[in-house]
Every structure is written in structure tokens, then in C-alpha cells.
Amino acid sequence: MSTPDRAPAAQPAMAPRATPYTGRLRRLTGHWGPAALIVLGLLGIWESYVRLWAVPKWLLPAPSVIAMTLIGSRALLLDHTLVTLLEVVVGFGLSLLCGVLLACGIATSQTLERALYPFVIASQMVPIIVIAPLLLIWVGYGLTPKIIVVALTAFFPIVVNMADGLKSADPDAVNLLRTMGASRWQIFVKVQVPTSLPFLFSGLRVAMAVSVIGAVIGEWVGSSQGLGYLMIRSKPQFLTERVFAAIVMLSVMGVALFVLVGIIEQHVIPWWHNEQRQRSLK
Amino acid sequence: MKQVSSNAPDEVLRDAKVRVEGVSKYMLQDGKPFAVLQDVNLYANAGEIVSLIGPSGCGKSTLLNIMAGLEQPSSGTLYLHGHRAEQRLGMVGYMQQKDLLLPWRNVLDNVILGLELRGISRRLARARALALMEQFGLKGFETAYPYALSGGMRQRAAFLRTILPEQEVFLLDEPFGALDALNRAQIHEWLLGLWETLHKTIVLVTHDVDEAIFLSDRVYVMTSRPGRVQLVQGINLPRPRRLEMVTTAPFVAFKTQLLAALRQEPAAAARDGKQ
Q1: Which of B92, B98, B116 minimises the CB distance to A172?
Q2: Chain A residues touching residue B104 (CB < 8 angstroms)
Q3: Domains of chain A: which residue ranges?
Q4: Which of B31, B50, B217, B256 has the fewest CB atoms within 10 Å, measured from its CB?
Q5: What is the predicted ipTM?
Q6: Contact A173/B102, CB-based, under 8 Å?
């Protein structure tokens, strides 16, 4: 496969059957179809189980009831979702900033690496559920303790991935720049940082997923708003359908943020994705 | 002694653009030092092309790394433009065997790398590169990324990147190794045409005897382990060189001589081992 043409290589992998669908639609249904079928199937079983056995709403609400709650309490749900979203976005941003700076320090200085890495690891060893109430005592209610909890959960994958990425620069490329008279800073900016970006984005996707969990834990420990708070408050009232509605909102938010990171990644490092695609065709 | 080993009179050495004098390099293997290079002498004057040939493992690449400043010799001296040069990074153009194009930069931004590092604005650097794209067979591929290029194109892009900062000395480490014979012959003529207009000094490492004779003013044949210069052969074929020359009697005579030197090398190594 020495020719750079991509089209012919893709041909044999396509389904040989002729269908009325366009290729794009077929790919989409082929991609998401199985997952959608499983979800629909599970919802169907759930719905019929609840109805056939007449399970009380406070024990297990039917999907239809949850859907009604989503529509009926949309204003309330949206308010709390926005609070949680704010905590996640600000906390994530904070950990991105701190994580990247920390990783740069770790990757460029052995002394800094030895000094800082133990603390980075230790920060993950202490359970968030222990730290969260302490934060409450130290910085009070409000958004700040939640943002700190989110930042604490998110920054570990960011630091570790980014530091590894910065350190995995091709030594031959580094030498090439040295022969061109590059300074250490130029090598860092022009080789190490671009090399680290695919690593960073892997870390960001993990960080995004865990930061939603972090926000909910922060809210559980003590808060007056947010989806986590809504769950905690709805449970003793036996508003189980609202707990489920909050879970749905949380999932939708988490997936949307995860997808957003992927979209940003596509725009920041398009060369990486094109190269991966090229490699997979060979 | 110096003159004899470098095969050149004193005044030539003073004019040399690049000169390696008595360079040895020792490395540790299993805790014991062994010689990679031993007392290597060579020089290249302004506008000369000199070639280094020898079996693999004779330290050719190490020698180029030392000349480029990536490594320091264990003993010996290097001169650039007639001056002792302890610090050589950024003073010579060095093209390694791998093209080392950066995957996150398109062709245009890859080739301007050297200019950019010298603080020349991207706009100006791009303008200078664009003017040379056609000559390097890269026209129309300015915005393509390295993964989409053929091996030959990647090599030419790496070559353009080496040449753009306008150094006076270029070190080329098997630059055409990835090309087949036909492309090679073409690129040799192309390179000589380019070289005649630029008038730069080139030190070329190759394992191809034909390539060495065709391109060079002088060929250094090296022995392996430790790497030493066993033969210096001036190539006084007229310039400009033409492809037809490879079948002429003088060319064949040079080739016979160099091949004989390369063949006798293992015997010489065995003899040295007994000493």
C-alpha cells in the first residue's frame, strides 16, 4: 500500500448488498443501530414488568412515568442541571489549567517530578468522599467546595497523560531541532507540546467522565442546589421518578460533555485523526 | 603526519569549510570502552562534495552526529569555516536517514522549520519555501500532511527543510536510501544541478559506491570497528557530471578501486584484531 490513495482500500470492507439507503445513513444505522435496539428493548421490558406486576411508583417508576416527570418538572430539572453543569465546567477548567501547568513542570524538571509526583498520586489515594465534608467545613456551602471536588477528581488523568505525552517526544525529532539551533523552549513548544496533545485529549475524556461524578458527590455531601441535591432531597419524599429524571439529565449532560471534548479534539488535532484513519486502512 | 592522513596540503586545510582532525570516539559496552571512531581525519573545501563509504557499523553516522554537534568527540578537533568549533549545533545543515517530518505540520510548515527557529516570521519563511516547491517536486502538496506523501516526496521535503536555512555546510546521511535505483539516478542529477547553483559544501554518507563516485570530489573509505579512514580517493571526473559517465573507463576504474578497498576491509580488520 505505497500509494496515498485511500478510496480503493475502503471498497472491500463495505457491505456488498445493494440497499435503498445512502451509504452515510447505512453507516449511521450500522453504527448506532445495535445500541439503540438494546436500549429500546430494555425500556420495553422495564415498562411491561412495572405494568404487569403493578410495581408501585415509589419503588420503581415506569419509563413512561419518568418521561412524564422529565416533561412536567422540566423547569426544576433544568435549573438544577445548570447548577451542576456550572460546577463541572468550572471545576474541569480549573483542573485543566492546573493539570497542564503541573504536567509541564513534571516533564521538564526531574526535581519537580520527584517533588510533585507523590502528591499527585496521594491526591487520588484519599477518597473524595472524605475530602468533600472537610471542604464544606473549610470553604462553606455554595459552589466553591463542589468546584474543588470536581477539580480534584478530574486533574489526575490530565496530569498523568499530559506528562507522559510531553516525555514521549521522538528523540530523533528533538535532535533534528537541536541541529537547527533550537533552544530548549523551542523544542518544548514545537515538538513536545504537539506530541502530548493526543495524550492530553485521552486524559480529558476520562477527566470529563469522572468530573460529573465528582460534582454529584460534592452536592450529596452538602448543598442546596444541583442534580445531586435534587436526588438526595427527592429520595426521602419517595419521589423516585424524580430521582430517575435527575439521573437521565445527568447522563445526558455527561454524554454531551464527553462528545464535546471529542469534537474539540477533532478540531485541535485533525492530523492525528487523519493519520490514525490512514494507518487503519493499510 | 596530518597532511598525509588527510591527503591534503596545509593551505587547503586552512580554507576547509569543515575539517575533522584526529577525531576518536569511545563508548561503553558492558562497562568496557570500545572505539567507535579512531583518529579520523577528513576535510571538505568550499563547494566540494565529499562522500563517506564503508560497511554498516563503521561509525559513519556517529561521525556525522559529531560533526553536527549532537555528540562530542572523545578526542580530536573540529573546525568549521576555518575556526575551531566546540559548539556546532545550528551551524551546519544535517539531514538524517529518517525524514523526521513532524506529523502535525503540513509540508509547507515542515520545510520552514529551520527558518522559523531562527526567528524569521512564518509569512516570510513560507514565501521563501513556496518559491522552491516546484524545484523540489512538491508543488500542489503544500497543505498536505506527511502521512499522505510518498517516500520520495517525504525525502524531498526533508531535503528542502535542510537547505532552506542556507547553511554553507550540509551533512547528508544516506539521503537517498529510501529510493529505488531509477529515482536515485534522477535525483543525483537533480541534486548536482541544484548544488551547482547553490555552491555549498556537502558531506555525504552512503553505502552506494556509484553514488559516491558520481557525486563526489573525494571519497573516504572507512573500516569498521573501530571506524578509521583506510583510503582517500580524489575523483577528478569533469563537472558537470552526466549520467553517461558511469560507464566510462575512469569511472569504472574508480569503482574497481573502491570496491577492492571495501572488500579487503574485513581482512584488514581481522589482521588488526590479532595485533
Answers
A1: B98
A2: 194, 197, 269, 271-272
A3: 77-281
A4: B31
A5: 0.86
A6: yes
